[in-house]
Amino acid sequence: MEGAVTPPGARGTARQATTNPHPPTKPNGPLRVAVVGGGPGGLYAAALLKRLQPNRHITVWERNTPHDTFGFGVVLSDETLGGIEHADPEVYSALQSEFVRWDDIDIVHRTTRHTSQGHGFAALGRRRLLEILHHRCRSLGVELRFREEAPDPAHLARAHDLVIAADGVHSTTRTAFADVFRPHITAHRCRYIWLAADFPFDAFRFEIAETEHGVMQLHGYPFSADASTVIVEMREEVWRAAGFDELDETESVERCAKIFADALGGRPLRSNNSAWTTFRTVVNERWSHGNVVLLGDAAHTAHFSIGSGTKLAVEDALALAACLSEQPTLTDALEAYEAERRPVVASTQRAARASLEWFEDIALHLNQPPRQFAFNLLTRSRRVTHDNLRLRDPHFTEAVERGFGCPPGTPPMFTPFRLRGLTLRNRVVVSPMDMYSAADGLPGDFHLVHLGARALGGAGLVMTEMVCVSPEGRITPGCAGLWSGRQAEAWRRITDFVHTRAPGTAIGVQLGHSGRKGSTRLMWEGMDEPLDEGNWPLVAPSPLPYKPGSQTPRELSRAQLTDLREQFTAAAVRAARAGFDLLELHCAHGYLLSSFLSPLTNRRTDAYGGSLEKRLRFPLEVFDAVRAVWPEDRPMTVRISATDWVEGGTTAEDAVAIARAFADHGADAIDVSTGQVVADEEPEFGRSYQTPFADRVRNEARVPVIAVGAISSWDDVNSLILAGRTDLCALARPHLYDPHWTLHAAAEQGYEGPGVVWPPQYRAGSRPPRTGRTDAPKPRLTLSDLPLTEGA
């Protein structure tokens, strides 16, 4: 569970004023409405629709009794409450009088408790919430049918103008029309049980129990003056090893109370038809079918650890009611409802998935210092960040920074980091970005300006694009190379500029070979599309084209493997002479070395294919050969694709093994990227979406990592580094948008210190320029304050 209540003055974007107290009645609006499911979302939708149009006949079917509820407490945010306040002040007033509020989160790890303040929560009992909504529905004239299964969904659709399916994660309505809604349901790796304790916790409490069977965790929070919700969660294999699969409900409850006796003060737990279950993430390709629409858990689920299930359902109800009021037809209303809610839900589900996966892999983080572990837990979903937490609880955040080693007033991103003989003055890396602007592999003025500008921009390390080891190893005719002395001299011009004009900034070279993804057009002329003319032959571990229409590569022979290894070592020697401070071997994104690693692209049956150990053989041979000629004091890193985003491809476990193998051979850090190995991949895009893979590699393989992938803000960088999920952060698009991204990050945080240095020529720009007067007196009156005269 995260801090749920928005600070005063920062109320969010939940649906508000469109559902005004006396909206105009729409004669063509749905008058006969069926609601399947009497949970908070369905009841609130019924109440809103009846209030908006009193002549509607609305029936709610609920299979259970009015007093049955599963789970105990409900947490709502200020933004959700704001929507309720505008739409139905009576419900809002009733809720306000029931809420238990608190600000603290306690995290107990290895007998050490850390408290973070300033979060703001509001909770009430789920049963009391339902009672309030029952009363409101009855007062408005909604028909509530308890202990009664709803009729067949197709029958309901024929007999009503609108059917709202609010029948939960196991929705029968969704199942009936599965061919239209096309649900995707993902079961996760933990078991959990929803319980209660008859006393109020004084904070939201996370407690970690390391048992002989594995790690278990407690999530607890108060929901009334004398009761708390308690959720106990653990990995499936831990649950089985502990014998919970053989215990009945009473025995499970007693066992949980014993395990978490310290958190409970020795007091018992109680259940309410509680059963161990596995959380399922529900995603639907469509939310409506004719006059049937999904709402709440029937449409989508979000893991309880960020406390969003009831919140999302209530906000769905608000949006649906508003869209039905605003739009001219039912079809338009349902389309508008989905368009409005889908991006909000998708964002919440991404955060919820990050949170649930963090708890699934909680054992990775247990050896962190307790305070850093607490910070990591608080920022697990990436919605609570370093900067946000610094505002909520500056004392806690400063303590975490001190434990990390940040000098006073120094953000984590500006702490130095050492790789072999190279000390980077900050943790920001300009990620390799192909520019497709070389002529015959020769970097020119464009590369000097492009890389030079970003070096002047303050990053600790600036990386070249993938520099190819042979003409045949290029991706496109515009790719840069290091297969000749002339190219090395051109690169020397660039490294000399960086070292002279941006002292303290390191510059690294990424060496690679395109493999089966070569001989294609420049990116802006058709990415991964074959050249119309001037093609060169391709090579790969196996004769598999990248995608339909791509050139089929030749399978590499033993002799060709030797030649390739020598091309890499020759390029590395030239890179050293060119003055690069660091060398990265590109073993990602489906290029040559990457295609040896993935089982999807390596179908060899000799010593270089088959098991992961054999697939690693050639990339490790290349690494060893390059390491042997690369100066001993200069670091080497390796970029890998930690997943192929396709079933049957590289797994997260494989990625750890690959990283560990390179580290054992002398890699100083692993640059953890993902995908681009096969054309039919299905990445799970989102903010910082690749960083969990870096986190896992770092904490399982015990090797420094560089995190990449939609890291866009300095707040993200600080959060990831301070949480111990990465050592360095590589950013690409932000540095295209702003070559001085790191300098501006320092200015925006008020940081001046050795972690970043403004070039003297740019120092006058170290403060943002004024954009206009901001202190003008505000008007005393606006037109909306005055009555309009006739004709106005």
UniProtKB/TrEMBL annotation:
UniProt protein name: Bifunctional salicylyl-CoA 5-hydroxylase/oxidoreductase
CDD domains: OYE_YqiM_FMN (cd02932)
UniProt cross-references to SUPFAM superfamilies, sorted A to Z: FAD/NAD(P)-binding domain, FMN-linked oxidoreductases
Region (Disordered): 1-29, 757-792
Domain called NADH:flavin oxidoreductase/NADH oxidase N-terminal: residue spans: 413-746
PANTHER family: BLR3436 PROTEIN (PTHR43303:SF3), NADPH DEHYDROGENASE C23G7.10C-RELATED (PTHR43303)
Domain FAD-binding: 32-349
Pfam families with a match to the protein in the record: FAD_binding_3, Oxidored_FMN
Gene3D superfamilies in UniProt: 3.30.9.20, Aldolase class I, FAD/NAD(P)-binding domain
Signal peptide coordinates: none
InterPro entries referenced in this protein's UniProt entry, alphabetically: Aldolase_TIM, FAD-bd, FAD/NAD-bd_sf, OxRdtase_FMN_N, YqjM-like
